[in-house]
């Protein structure tokens, strides 16, 4: 079964909650996972995993969560050919650039050569009410990574 790394960046904890929900669903389907705050992660460890999941909330005027700055910049130098990936994030559709961080990370992953397995998961508002969407998205994801 694919070895999956989940990296999240969060300011108020919502993306961590979302990452935890995805992690639980994957584990319940016997996918081997490692979950890390982006502040504890390095692009050098990406080569050790088959599947890379990145999660970031959107801040400012459609920007990545602050803690992602270094990791995002370091990613530019990384070759992710042969890696499978997907992106998730919470946001708020009352902002003009809804969940733009998801789009930003998807673009960067593609540029690095990773294969995006499915459209990013964008949660509008309260992540505590996202179980159904998370379950559906993660189930779809698992379909792509199961042997
Ligand atoms: C000052 C501010 C700016 C924000 N900008 C955006 C935005 O441009 N697009 C969006 O979808 N959500 C935006 N949000 C909503 C956050 O992304 C949302 O609250 C998210 O759940 C925070 O997740 P976190 O706790 O993991 O950082 C903004 C929130 C604040 C307080």
Give a short overview.
By secondary structure, the protein is of the alpha/beta class. It is built from 4 helices and 8 strands, in the order βαββββαβαββα.
What is the strand and helix layout of this fold?
Blueprint: E1 3-9, H1 14-28, E2 32-37, E3 51-56, E4 58-59, E5 63-64, H2 69-75, E6 84-91, H3 100-111, E7 115-116, E8 121-124, H4 131-145
Parallel strand pairs: 1-2, 1-3, 3-6, 6-7, 6-8
Antiparallel strand pairs: 4-5
This protein binds flavin mononucleotide (FMN).
Flavin mononucleotide binds at residues 10-15, 57-62, 65, 90-92, 95, 97-100.
Description:
This protein is of the alpha/beta class. It has one domain (3-145): 3-Layer(aba) Sandwich (Rossmann fold), CATH 3.40.50.360. Helix content is 33%, strand content 25%. The protein is built from four helices and eight strands. The protein has helices at 14-28, 69-75, 100-111, 131-145, and strands at residues 3-9, 32-37, 51-56, 58-59, 63-64, 84-91, 115-116, 121-124. The strands form two sheets. Strands 1, 2, 3, 6, 7 and 8 form a six-stranded parallel sheet that branches. A two-stranded antiparallel ribbon has the order 4-5. Bound molecules: flavin mononucleotide. Flavin mononucleotide binds next to helix 1, strand 4 and strand 6.
């Amino acid at each position: 079964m694919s070895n999956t790394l989940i990296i999240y960046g969060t300011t108020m904890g919502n993306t961590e909650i979302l990452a935890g929900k995805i992690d639980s669903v994957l584990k319940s389907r016997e996918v081997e996972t490692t979950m890390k705050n982006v502040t504890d992660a390095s692009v050098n460890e990406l080569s050790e995993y088959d599947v890379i999941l990145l999660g970031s909330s959107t801040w400012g005027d459609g920007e990545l969560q602050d803690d992602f700055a270094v990791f995002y910049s370091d990613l530019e130098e990384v070759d992710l050919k042969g890696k499978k990936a997907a992106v998730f994030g919470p946001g708020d559709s009352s902002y003009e650039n809804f969940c733009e961080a998801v789009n930003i990370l998807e673009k960067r992953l593609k540029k690095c050569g990773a294969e995006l397995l499915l459209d990013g998961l964008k949660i509008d508002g309260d992540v505590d009410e996202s179980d159904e969407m998370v379950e559906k998205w993660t189930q779809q994801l698992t379909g792509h990574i199961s042997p």
